[in-house]
């Protein structure tokens, strides 16, 4: 009897440790956040015949990548990161067009990506929380602009985490549940989209064999880091108006397909090393997408300018 009591005495501290560990891990997941499910947005009423004179003909919405924005940044003069890649797209557009023709808005959001297994925590917002905040900020701006300016048309563009957000927003617009009607979107331009699916949209520059990291690692769930896989249906009605740029060996958009499948481990392992210290991902200002030497950011700025030039001029009142 004494030996049995001793065993029970040893089990009690172990059970307490297991319960505490479960509570800590559960709280970790809750605080790190989850990717929210899309909220369907009701259809807009029939558009009027004119809109206020203060409304731009075209609204450009640009979404920077990780560590290239902040929630308090100035959307018309972003300074959170002076080296932000998207500045090489937005500044040329601001210089070329009067704001009455094209209003260029850079979405301010947290734009962080914490290491989910860092001990101690690195103090960054999780990818899930950052992505959710960026998506909400983008949709909020689009809905407000469309309510004020129902005839304004749109160009959406983004880089890296910003490309994931822009692509997700475009996908919801394309399936009819987004913040603005699909027929008002002139085009969507994505650089290094982490949910890039070669089956949807148009490829600019060299073709790459891989897929976005979120497709490659589909099903991976760590605290605050959820790989959400492909966008069902791609970009819907915006598939033909969506353009993707991805540099070969950029592990964010050119990762091995189904890398977590055990049958692919041997072939995927060498390529997964590209996720660590990935220099290609930071080189889109010099990555050339055509024989003329046009870089990714130059192409995106020129493409957006062409869309703006060809956009309708709505009546104003």
Automatic annotation (TrEMBL):
The chain crosses the membrane at residues 12-31. It comes from the Bacteria. Keywords: Disulfide bond, Hydrolase, Membrane, Serine esterase, Transmembrane, Transmembrane helix. Pfam families: Cutinase (PF01083). One of its GO terms (molecular function) is carboxylic ester hydrolase activity. SUPFAM superfamilies: alpha/beta-Hydrolases. Belongs to the cutinase family. This is Cutinase. It comes from Rhodococcus erythropolis (strain PR4 / NBRC 100887).
